[in-house]
Amino acid sequence: MYRRLGSGIACSLLVLGALQSEVTPAKASDDADLKLILQRLDKLEKENSALRTQIRQIEGKTVATEKRSVQAEKTAKSAEAAMASAPAGVGPVKGRILYVRECEMYGPGFFYIPGTPGCMKIGGYARLQGALGASGDGVVNGADFMASPEGRQTRTDSNDANYQARAAMSLDVRYPTEWGLLRGYVRGGFQNVTPTNSANAPVVWWDRGYAEFAGFTVGKQRSFFDMFDPVSSYTYGDPRTTGDTDLYGAIMAGYTARFGNGFSAAIALEDPGAHDRGGVANMSMSQMFLGALVTNNGLAGQGGSFTGGTFSSGTLHGFNTPDIIANARLDQAWGYIGASVAGHKVAAGYYGGANSTINGHPDDKWGYAASVAGKLYIPGMRGDSIGANFVYSKGAPGYATKGNVWQLYGSGNSAAFAWLPDGVYDNVGVASGGSSIELTTAWSINGVYQHIWSPQWMTDVYGGYTSVSFNQHATNMINQHLPTPPVGSTACGVLVLGTVQPPLNVGTGAGNSCSPDFSFWQIGTRTQYNPVQWLDLGVDVSYTRLNTAYAGPNVTLAATGARPAGTYSIDNQSVLTVLGRVQINFNPGQ
User: 24 lies in a domain?
Assistant: First the structure.
């Protein structure tokens, strides 16, 4: 631009000089010619003035630009100095922009939080799962909240199909300190799960929310008792043969010590509600219904309710003593082996048909559970593995199973029932004067084989068995309330007294097992296809067999839902379950 302006000025000066050379010697003989020359000179002078003005404006802008360049250079030098003193991992600075870069030390998906040495990963998933013979999230028909009313298996009480639609988000934060790594993890979202809620009523859920620091874990995490692989790693369902808390989490405060060479040990205090699916049953109150168990714990807010044929679980928020958990584990390249134990406080309400301080109450007891688990990677395979878990419990059956109540009607007039409290007590008949809490025994075994066909295909075969038993004194306390009119007659070898429960009229008990003991088993297989990374497509098929309590013919039942009152055969029942899932995972994590 300067060249063009300079050339213009030079040309103007040349023209002016030429005109002046003509004018100087001129002896104008004509005033008109002189006037024309003067007009041209005036025009050239105005043009030159305009060109000089443009030059000054350009020079001013150039100076301003140079000042800004100097300032930018100073800012860059200041940023470089700040970067030199900043913690490792902070991205480069340019002006006021902080560039985020990948934080590779914690794995894929982590990035540095600008201005700090901390790293973060944002993840989650979106899922649609369909179900036949189970709830949308995989609880088999007839078990727990699916016992009432889905277990009735009628067209007005039960859904032919269910679904789960879930959107989840997770946030994983890591921050290095002189005491070690500080970690925080949160996962939750929104979902619709039929039959418990509809598309018009989504619910908020969260199964993880904890902090880890210097060996401590505080918040909501999978229970320290659960040593075996999480159920979500091998099935789309929620098996009742295990008490695993993977799908729900447990509120806890724990500490883990790592001794090197893969050996670790841990201890934790946990909310009893994570595993306590039953509670204590007072046999002088109405506690056992068709498809429901309402307990009378000595802990605030722990009972449930049964109204209009529908069971509502208690809040499970009150307790006076947390469960105490300890474990030890060895992890190696070949797999792992571990053991865990748990102590669970069992506390009852008051004696009698209504809670009153004047009635007194049984002493508290401690229930317990113990577990061993292991997993072996099969040499020479693509990553195939086989594993198993065994749990034994007394007074803490929720550690062995999540199947604390069953109601399952079959074809014709046949049905199966079961109830699983932590323990039972009474103060009449065989328990005159007030019994202690008679603790329930439950044990379970589960196993999984996983085969990797290719990087895109895998198949899991899984199965489990659970057994529940009551001692003879507990059995007699339950049987003395069986509905065998008139009161004072004999049922299953004991006199019938007062409150009627469970609601199975077995007559004298002839031909009936007269036992509240029961068992069940589940076996299934899941095949999953991953056409691209982060996308899961799969099908899970399982079979459940309930070996009923009080097995026998000619048992009179009251009406429930669309099932009429009448004489039924209490027989073992089965359920076939099919689950299908489509899920996209982005930056998955635990």
Answer: yes
Going along 453-589, which residue ranges are E strands?
457-469, 490-491, 494-495, 518-529, 535-547, 552-557, 566-570, 573-586
In angstroms, what CA-CA distances link 103 with 22, 108, 186?
A: 81, 8, 19
In contact, 513 and 447? CB cutoff 8 Å? no
What's this model's pTM, rounded to 2 decimal places? Answer: 0.81
The answer to whether residues 263 and 364 touch, using CB atoms and an 8 Å cutoff, is no
Token pair recorded at residue 360: 């007194």
pLDDT of residue 56: 64
Contact yes or no for 209/189 (Cβ under 8 A): no
**Which residues have CB under 8 Å from 41's CB, separation 6+?**
16, 19
Nearest to 164 by CA among 221, 222, 125, 123: 125
> What's the CA gap between 406 and 151, in Å, rounded?
8
Decide which of 60, 77, 94 is a domain's last residue. 77
CATH number of the domain where residue 543 is located:
2.40.160
Task: Please state, in angstroms and as integers, the Cα–Cα distance from residue 249 to each residue in 215, 418, 432, following that order.
Answer: 19, 26, 41
Residue 548 belongs to domain spanning: 237-586
Number of domains in the chain: 2
Using alpha carbons, select from 139, 128, 273 the residue that is nearest to residue 196.
Answer: 139
CA distance 464 to 275: 18
Listed residue (216, 354, 253) closest to 296, CA to CA: 354
Count CB neighbours of 265 within 10 A: 14
Q: Encoding tokens for residue 584? A: 């996209």
Peptide bond into 117 cis (omega under 30): no
Shortest CA distance to 347 belongs to which of 381, 404, 302, 382? 302
Q: Residue 286: how many CB atoms within 10 A of its CB? A: 16
Cα–Cα distance for residue pair 232/579, rounded to 1 Å = 13
- In degrees, rounded to 5, the angle at the alpha carbon of residue 238 between the alpha carbons of residues 332 and 308 is 155
Read off the tokens for 38: 């003067």
The C-alpha atoms of residue 342 and residue 404 are separated, in whole angstroms, by: 19
Could you give the percent of the chain with pLDDT greater than 90?
Answer: 66
Q: Which two tokens stand for residue 279?
A: 């509670």
Final residue belonging to a domain, choices 42, 60, 77: 77
Identify the pLDDT of residue 55.
65
The answer to which of 161-175, 315-329, 465-479 has the lowest mean pLDDT is 315-329
Beta-sheet strands, E only, within 333-404: 335-346, 365-377, 385-394
Helices (H) and strands (E) in the chain, counts: 3, 32
